[in-house]
């Protein structure tokens, strides 16, 4: 992994994040929720996040020849699931985090009961995003299926990470890979798969995106581990070094920093080469992948 | 409401509950989950519950001319959502209950982190039940849509119940009705709607079942309030009188016991008359409704 650091994503990717941010806000605004619940949900969702997962959904849709607009509802659904997981993971019973993206976490801001329930709310809202969108029924069923499975796997990953329970015969690196693949990789891979489905991918294009998503999902968490190890709190917007201190399994903690960087490079390359058959429509996705490998936050 | 108490449902309804219990167990057994998570999920789900919601799904399917088997996956999905809500509602941050159906609640049994995560897991498992069943795509989309909306409403009801936030202009009875309709009524109504859809209901039959479900859902919670007030802890299997002591809004606390019993009778009658056009296929559903109005646990 060359030591290139790229703090901000390219401009056009910032534009994608803005579109997503606006749509998240618009979708939440349409719901008729009690005011305090609406506030808590907005606090959890419209918070200046990087929007990596929904951006991947839009860009994977574009990569297989669709227009980003077609994938917007699926992208919002994925981001709702991601935001649900952040809120619940931050709770005192799990990671007990007070800070997220430089702001108090939701349970600090609005109390534990509200954080628990606002998190719970985001799950059905995600599935409602899919059913209320204009996708053909068979496509909707596939999207729902993928999102449900990825959410299940994400929860399983969180259980492994928080409470252990991996098969004892797994070696250290295989264990950490199993945690990361579930906890972070599953939803990122799903974000990519959903984008491909929304874009009407051929089975070859779907396989390409799926390979891309699997590699990128694992890579994303290893880069996160590296940032957690080296970033400053100001920069990352949450407590850093915490995972390592909490005795949580991390890639650099398991195989070392240099080997972790090599794995990032390998996964980046694997993801990139998966896109080679898709041609010019995958260019933005490809440059996003470069940023994901080199990001510093 | 005549003071008839019926402790146990009729024999054939016990059979329905057994079928559901077996299917819940079978569905959970098929999942490849880490052992402690599988144990926690089983503990939350396969627990001798009354299975009112999935029984309604099966019986509403039968009432519109379908066979109970067709509605089994939808019934399991509804019960997963119900079990998720029980686990999260029992958590210290919400109701802080130590006892459920005569056993320690999941967070007492397996810790708070596991209870939170096992609850989270049940939500995607519910939606996976629908997509992995053999329903035609359009039916699946409707089922997913209804379940997502009902889950949302249930969470909103829990927010009202725990954290307030109802419109201030609502009178007391309207407020408690709004809480009950969301917190308990929405999922019961959804259970009925889903059964009707699985049974291929005509639009008239669907409307009949929907009216039935709406009345039964509200009635169910009022009967629960009455049982909570008068039952003994041994009998109910959880702490009784707790809702009233916690200052939570209840029907008898708001409009008195006698008037609450009258409302139960009215809702029972409304539900029963909604079924009148469905004929002999609705007979079991009808007798279930009688038990729901007169049950003592």
Supply the key terms.
297 residues, mainly alpha, Farnesyl Diphosphate Synthase, two-stranded antiparallel sheet, 14 helices
In terms of quaternary structure, the protein is homodimer
Most residues in contact: chain pair: A-B, 47 and 47 residues
Overall outline of chain A: globular
Helix and strand sequence of chain A: HHHHEEHHHHHHHHHH
CATH superfamily of chain A: Farnesyl Diphosphate Synthase
β-strand percent of chain A reads: under 5%
Tell me the CATH architecture of chain A.
Orthogonal Bundle
- N-to-C CA distance of chain A: 17 Å
Rg for CA atoms of chain A = 18 Å
Please give the number of β-strands of chain A. 2
Give me the CATH fold name of chain A: Farnesyl Diphosphate Synthase
Outline the biggest β-sheet of chain A.
2 strands, antiparallel
**What is the CATH level 1 assignment of chain A?**
Mainly Alpha
- The percent range for helix content of chain A is over 70%
Number of helices of chain A: 14
Name the structural class of chain A.
mainly alpha
Please indicate the count of domains of chain A.
1
**Please, what is the average pLDDT of chain A?**
92
- Name the poorly predicted regions of chain A: 232-236
Spatial order of the strands in the main sheet of chain A? 1-2
């Amino acid at each position: 992994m060359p030591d290139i650091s790229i703090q901000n994503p390219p401009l056009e990717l910032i534009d994608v994040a803005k579109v997503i941010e606006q749509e998240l806000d618009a979708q939440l605004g349409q719901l008729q929720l009690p005011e305090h619940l609406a506030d808590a949900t907005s606090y959890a969702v419209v918070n200046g996040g990087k929007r990596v997962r929904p951006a991947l959904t839009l860009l994977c849709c574009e990569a297989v020849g669709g227009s980003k607009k077609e994938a917007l509802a699926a992208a919002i659904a994925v981001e709702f699931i991601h935001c649900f997981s952040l809120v619940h993971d931050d709770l005192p019973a799990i990671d007990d985090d007070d800070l997220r993206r430089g702001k108090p976490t939701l349970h600090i801001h609005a109390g534990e009961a509200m954080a628990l329930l606002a998190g719970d709310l985001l799950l059905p809202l995600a599935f409602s995003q899919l059913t209320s969108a204009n996708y053909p029924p068979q496509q909707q069923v596939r999207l729902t299926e993928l999102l449900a499975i990825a959410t299940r796997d994400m929860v399983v990953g969180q259980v492994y990470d928080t409470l252990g329970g991996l098969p004892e015969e797994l070696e250290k690196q295989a264990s950490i890979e199993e945690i990361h693949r579930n906890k972070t990789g599953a939803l990122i891979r799903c974000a990519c798969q959903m984008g491909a489905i929304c874009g009407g991918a051929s089975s070859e294009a779907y396989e390409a995106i799926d390979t891309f998503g699997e590699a990128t999902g694992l890579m994303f968490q290893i880069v996160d581990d590296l940032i957690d190890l080296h970033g400053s709190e100001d920069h990352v917007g949450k407590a850093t070094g915490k995972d390592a201190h909490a005795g949580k399994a991390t890639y650099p903690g398991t195989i070392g920093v240099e080997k972790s960087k090599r794995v990032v490079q390998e996964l980046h390359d694997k993801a990139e080469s998966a896109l080679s058959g898709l041609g010019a429509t995958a260019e933005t996705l490809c440059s996003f992948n470069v940023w994901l490998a080199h990001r510093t936050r």
